[in-house]
Structures are given as C-alpha cells and as structure tokens.
Amino acid sequence: MSNPFQFTLPTKVIYKPGAIEELGAVLADIHVAKALIVTDPGLTAAGYVEPIEKILDQAQVAYRVFNDVEPNPSVETVEKGVSVYADLDYQVVIALGGGSPMDVAKTVAVRVTNDKAVPDLEGADQFENDPLPVIAIPTTAGTGSEVTPFAVITNREKKYKLTIISPRIIPKIAILDPGLIANLPAPIAASTGLDALTHAVESYTSLYGSAYSDAFAEKAIDLIGKYLRRFVANRQNQEAAGSMLIASLFAGLAFAHSRLGNAHAMAHPLGGFFNVPHGVANAILLPHIMDYNRIAVPERFERIAQLLGEAPVAENAVLAVRRLNQDLGIPASLSDVGVQADAIEAMTADAMKSGNVLANPRQTGTPEIQALFRQAL
Ligand SMILES: NC(=O)c1ccc[n+]([C@@H]2O[C@H](COP(=O)([O-])OP(=O)(O)OC[C@H]3O[C@@H](n4cnc5c(N)ncnc54)[C@H](O)[C@@H]3O)[C@@H](O)[C@H]2O)c1
Ligand SMILES: [Fe+2]
C-alpha cells in the first residue's frame, strides 16, 4: 500500500535535443527583460555561456553573468552573487550548470527578495517573500536540482552543508538538452550518474515513498542500469546522454517527494569536511548503505536487482552497484578520496541532523552511522 501523497508539478520541463534554442521563446513567454546568469568557471572556459549570451542578445534581454560558483558552493558565493550585480535589478535567475550553479541560483533568488543570512534559511520554508523565478539548464545528469525543492549550500566556517527546503524554490522552467552533457569529462559523467542512482534507490526504499515517487524511481533505476556505462564510455552517444538526463530528472522528481536516506545524510558532511564531490561521496557510500538496508525492505531490493538486469535477489542489487562502481572507476573507499578517521565523530553528528536519516528504511542512530563511515573508509 502506498503512503498518502499529493503532488503539483510547478516546473515546465522542456526535454529535447537542441532544447537550448527554446530559451529565447521561453523568456519572451514570461516577459522578462533582465536576467542574471549563474554558472561556473569550468563551463565558461568550455564555451557554454557564449551561445546563451547570443540567445539573450537576440531576445533583447539584458543580463550579467555570475561565473564564480565552485563545487560544494559556499554561503560566501551566494552572497557575492546577490551583491555583485544588484544594480541590474534582474527579474529572473538563469542557472547554467550542475547542482552547484543550480543551487546557488535558487538561493540567490531567495536572498534577493529576503534580507536574511543564508545559514538562517536552513530547513523548511524559512523565508517570507517569494523568490525570483529560476530557469534551470542542467549540464550534468545527476542532481535533479532542476525540479527539486532543495538547495544545498556549504557553511565553510562550520564545514557544514545546509539544505534550504521550500516548494517555492523549485525552478519554474527546466530546459533539458542532451547536447549540453555531450562533453562532460568521463569521471564527472560517472559520479554524477551515480548520484542520480543514489537518489532513485534511496527514494525507492525511503519510508516516505509513495506510488508516485516509486514510478519515477523505478524508471530512473531502469534507465541508469541500461545507459550509465554507455554514457560514460561515450558521452557523444545521444541515446545514452538523453536517457541519463531523463533518468536524473525522474530521480529528482522521485526524491523531491520521498526524501532520501543514510547515503545522502552521510555524503553531505563528506562534502563539508573534505570537499569530496557529492556524486563521488554517494557512489562510495551507496553499496554499503544498500547492504545495511537490505534486510529492512528485501522486496524493494529484489526489484532494484531486477531493474539493474540481475535475478531478483536482494543481495544482487548491492553486487550490481559494486560492479557498476568498479566499471566506472569510482574510488573504492573514502580514504582514497582523503577522508580521515578522526573526523568520523564530527561527521556523524552532522549526518544525524539530516532529515534523511528519518527516511532511511532501517532505523539508524549515532553508533550505526559511525560504523557505516568506518566500513566505507
Ligand atoms: N538541490 C538538489 O536537489 C541537489 C541534489 C543533489 C545534489 N545537490 C548538490 O549539487 C552539487 C553537485 O552538483 P553536480 O554533481 O552536478 O556537480 P557541480 O555542479 O559541482 O559540477 C562539477 C564540475 O563539473 C563541471 N561541469 C559541469 N557540467 C559540465 C559540462 N557539461 N561539461 C564540462 N564540465 C562540466 C563543472 O565545471 C564543475 O567543475 C552538490 O553541492 C550537491 O550537494 C543538490
Ligand atoms: Fe544527491
């Protein structure tokens, strides 16, 4: 039986090869004349911003480009984005990039209309005024941030990744163009794809899941099982790139309605303390968490095994993800990415603050999170 559910889909999603060409028409539709583009230096250097500038010029939209977003983006970066171009008085924020630029754009959109420090925005609906609308253009197939009510920002001083949660920060429009992920470096394609798989698996096994989130999670797992290897092997494979972008979108729709689990609760402090990229942290943790959770919801893991092309035995789901990690060159352990044992206690305390622990299907307390960190080390 399903948990009760409600849903509205506030995002207009446009998926199409070449969809970026629709941006001009999209802007004309919502009648905006001034836009802030939020992106990162890697994307600017790789030539992603120029075509967008041309489209905005043609559409006669005035814009500025805020280009300073870093992976695991900080409170300071958000504040810089708010202050640097305040003079333009923009009406929309366009996010071009992976989860980092999308989350900064969502937070800048809140900060512009609410005079409240970013750390005070942590949690559910901690702001009064509606944010500016956000148009999200993902360039990784991973986070699903283009449709989620979350924005994850790092408080560097406290080494803490805080999550802002509100249906009002869900982007109004998402433009999904497989051409934009065709030149992703293979290791980023791999780790971001495994972030999407972690979203789908954690959503599918979450205590807060429903028939709605299950439908999107199952399809996402199926697509990732079929296409992630092919995509990493050749990012120019259009069928694989398109399928991964859809998988990431569906996984985002799933977990937006179910929350996640221990892998995400633990991945955030790994980003806060050691700046481990989000996808890499999840990829290393996922098989450990699946193995730990297997006895709580065996029939869910049997189905995951099946969706990943294995016989429907719960343990096979774990083995399939281990093999996927190996095939894609994911580091075998947390120590391989610089994580040190002496931080486990502090990281566990932060993981326990995450709402995702409560969604995890096997009850989890401080000793269990510590043991899971040690196991993955
Ligand atoms: N809001 C949410 O719902 C949500 C969900 C999951 C993760 N997140 C957050 O998202 C962040 C991670 O985002 P991410 O994994 O997409 O990575 P990212 O945005 O940090 O990007 C990683 C790197 O990939 C490069 N890159 C991105 N697209 C590229 C392309 N097409 N070609 C070449 N290089 C490209 C960037 O320049 C950057 O150096 C984390 O902070 C995580 O906590 C948010
Ligand atoms: Fe994630």
TrEMBL record:
Keywords noted in UniProt: NAD, Oxidoreductase
What PROSITE patterns does its record include?
Answer: ADH_IRON_1 (PS00913), ADH_IRON_2 (PS00060)
Q: Where is the Alcohol dehydrogenase iron-type/glycerol dehydrogenase GldA domain?
A: 10-178
State the superkingdom.
Bacteria
Residue ranges of domain Fe-containing alcohol dehydrogenase-like C-terminal in the record:
190-376
Pfam families in UniProt: ADH_Fe_C, Fe-ADH
Q: Which cofactor does it need?
A: Fe cation
Recorded GO molecular functions are:
alcohol dehydrogenase (NAD+) activity; metal ion binding
The family database entries (CDD domains) matched by this protein are listed as: Fe-ADH (cd08551)
- InterPro entries the UniProt entry points to: ADH_Fe/GldA, ADH_Fe_C, ADH_Fe_CS, Alcohol_dehydrogenase_Fe
Q: Is NAD among the key words of this record? A: yes
Q: Which family does the record claim for this protein? A: Belongs to the iron-containing alcohol dehydrogenase family.
Indicate what this protein is called per its UniProt record.
Alcohol dehydrogenase
Q: Which organism is it from?
A: Desulfosarcina ovata subsp. sediminis
